[in-house]
Design a protein that fits this description.
Elements lengths: L2 E8 L2 E8 L13 H16 L2 H23 L5 H24 L9 H13 L22
Antiparallel strand pairs: 1-2
């Protein structure tokens, strides 16, 4: 895999072309723009990778969950129908939020296959679909091992 990024007029960088491969080193003199280049690359890769819609919906869902919890505790002397309604809303909301979290994704790099399988089993027990994961870890790849 090779990914090319061109940066122009950013910080101290007038023009730079980065060829990003599985292992890339960005080196240069002090104040030459290494940090700007690295942060730019991170932003681009994060924007490409992230499931923005699911991520935003999860944040909104978590806010709604807090508001629902506050509303439940502030309800003075609720009737039985109020209690049933709140329980129904909470159960449906939790189902929706769990489904959303289960289908959103963040990449994870595990240190071992055993660790990956352990986490995958825990997620499966909780009905969470593990869609993306990375094994082997970077330090086990032959081309990244020190000579």
């Amino acid at each position: 895999m090779e990914f090319k990024l061109t940066i122009e007029n950013l910080g101290n960088i007038e023009h730079a072309e980065l060829a990003v491969k599985p292992f890339t080193i960005i080196a240069g003199e002090n104040s030459s723009g290494k940090t700007f280049a690295t942060k730019s690359l991170y932003c681009v890769l994060d924007a490409i990778h992230r499931d923005h819609v699911s991520h935003r919906l999860v944040l909104i869902g978590l806010r709604f969950e807090r508001a629902l919890s506050m509303f439940s505790t502030e309800l003075k002397d609720p009737s039985q129908s109020d209690i049933q309604f709140m329980e129904y809303v909470e159960s449906r909301f939790i189902e929706w939020l769990n489904a959303l979290i289960s289908h959103s994704h963040e990449s994870v790099l595990f240190k071992s296959e055993a660790q990956l399988l352990q986490v995958e089993a825990i997620l499966k027990e909780n009905n969470i679909l593990a869609r993306r994961y990375f094994y082997p870890s970077l330090d086990t790849l032959d081309y990244l091992k020190p000579n």
